[in-house]
Amino acid sequence: MPRRQALAPPVRRDDMADMAAEDNVAYMRRLPAESMKLIVTSPPYNIGKRYERRTSLDRYLSGQTGAIAECVRLLHPRGSICWQVGNHIAPGGEVVPLDIVLYPVFKGHGLLLRNRIVWHFGHGLHCARRFSGRHETILWFTKGDDYTFNLDPVRVPQKYPGKKHFKGPNAGTPSCNPRGANPADVWVIPNVKSNHVEKTEHPCQFPVELVERLVLALTDEGDSVLDPYMGVGSAVVAAVKHGRRAFGCDVVGRYVDIARERLRALLAGTLLTRPMGKPVYDPGLPKGGH
Q1: Which residues does 180 contact at the CB level (< 8 Å), separation at least 6?
Q2: Quick one: which of 281, 284, 282 has its CA closest to 5?
Q3: Which of 270, 273, 268, 290 is nearest to 281 (CA)?
Q4: CA-to-CA distance for 231 and 240, rounded, in angstroms?
């Protein structure tokens, strides 16, 4: 049977995470101001999943506004907020893009949008009366112009690694960065479905790989990372895996228990995660291109 995934190396620090089963605003109010270098999350979309109560869009936005205000208070001056969302489906089937609806909330706090990252994945619900959705978005905001951004740890292979300039003073020399390419703002990363190596009982689980790229690019080792809608702890895993301190909360106690189990497995070196940069399976290639 082919090897699906190498185990993560053991993480030796066992004091790198603080998690709680409680309301996120109450949890965040206990944390010091400007203490988080990265706040990364994927909040509920108000579509009636079993971990949320569907309500009006206005009430949903009111709840998000309160949580975002606390996040801004906690954000380090050189830190980043990454808010990953999809669509709310209104009565009658109208699609409401939550990134568009939430953008003014962040702008109301004076935050600056650095990227609107498109996360593309290959699997999801099959729609009968519109094209099937296969992407979500990440809004990346900072407080100012001086913010942490480390490109080298998240570079991807160059499309044409041996390409050279063909004319001019640089003719014959490499035309691309030998350390790799900027991953750009469209990220093709599989979502966590039933056959994913990271799958738990959470119905809308964040892939660790997606958070890893943000952790490595937007923080330094030893920085603090917060997920105020933690779910089963993918952001906690990504942060601790790379030597950051993690904070997170969720109102569903069972999910927090699973997050703690995943963190213990990470610390023991037994947690399976999809490696960063692993090619997406292509059935047209031998062994799927892996």
Answers
A1: 152, 155, 156, 157, 158
A2: 281
A3: 290
A4: 16
Which distant-in-sequence residues (6+ apart) come within 8 Å of 16 by Cβ?
A: 239, 240, 243, 244, 245, 246
Q: CA–CA separation, 280 vs 290, rounded Å?
A: 8
Give the pTM: 0.88
Ordered mean pLDDT values, 10 residues apiece, the chain (290 residues): 43 75 97 98 70 73 94 98 92 91 97 97 84 93 97 93 80 80 95 88 91 98 97 97 97 96 96 89 69
Measured on CA atoms in the order 70, 71, 74, 77, is the torsion positive or negative? negative
Cβ atoms of 154 and 185 closer than 8 Å: no
All structural domains of the chain: 17-155+180-280 (3.40.50.150)
